[in-house]
């Protein structure tokens, strides 16, 4: 009965996630140095962290930060948008940058009310490749 009650309240999933995060932290060997983050990985991790935190995936975000060696303090959103050459409109600022990037590619960059990518594509794949299975895509 207790398990069912916790599931109905959504608390059981949170408890399980918290336990996983604590187990990871306990097992994480702090004496082993993390490999240095490349500029690209730093930006990608930050996009993922912003998405996770926006969706209240707190424990997943904390594990990502610990495991990747990402700085504890998130990068400034304006800095991140500038680094990725993203120009945001007012609507785009209310959601994670990753949503705007996805919207851009799903809508082909046409009339998007979310983020636009004016200078360069974040992906090196031609647009027609995105609908193909990964094994059929051109690898660059």
Annotate the secondary structure layout.
Blueprint: H1 2-9, H2 11-27, H3 39-54, H4 58-68, H5 77-83, H6 97-106
Folded structure, characterized:
This protein is mostly helical. The protein has 6 helices and no strands. The protein has a domain at 37-105: Up-down Bundle (Mitochondrial Import Receptor Subunit Tom20, Chain A), CATH 1.20.960.40. It is 49% helix and 0% strand. Helix 2 packs parallel to helix 4 (58-68) and helix 3 (39-54) runs antiparallel to helix 4 (58-68). The chain is flat and about 50 Å long. It starts with a helix and ends in a 34-residue tail after the last helix. The model is unreliable at 111-140 (pLDDT under 50). This is Centrosomal protein 20. Keywords: Cell projection, Cilium biogenesis/degradation, Cytoplasm, Cytoskeleton. InterPro entries: FOP_dimerisation-dom_N, LisH. It is found in: Cytoplasm, Cytoskeleton, Cilium basal body; Cytoplasm, Cytoskeleton, Microtubule organizing center, Centrosome, Centriolar satellite; Cytoplasmic granule.
């Amino acid at each position: 009965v207790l398990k069912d009650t916790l599931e109905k309240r959504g608390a059981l999933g949170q408890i399980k996630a918290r336990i996983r995060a604590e187990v990871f932290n306990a097992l994480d060997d702090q004496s082993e140095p993390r490999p240095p983050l490349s500029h690209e990985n730093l930006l990608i991790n930050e996009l993922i962290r912003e998405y996770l935190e926006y969706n209240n995936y707190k424990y997943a975000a904390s594990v990502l930060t610990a495991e990747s060696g990402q700085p504890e303090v998130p990068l400034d959103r304006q800095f991140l948008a500038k680094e990725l050459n993203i120009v945001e409109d007012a609507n785009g600022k209310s959601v994670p940058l990753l949503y705007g990037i996805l919207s851009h590619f799903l809508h082909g960059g046409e009339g998007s009310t979310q983020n636009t990518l004016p200078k360069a594509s974040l992906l090196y794949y031609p647009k027609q490749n995105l609908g193909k299975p990964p094994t059929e895509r051109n690898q660059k």
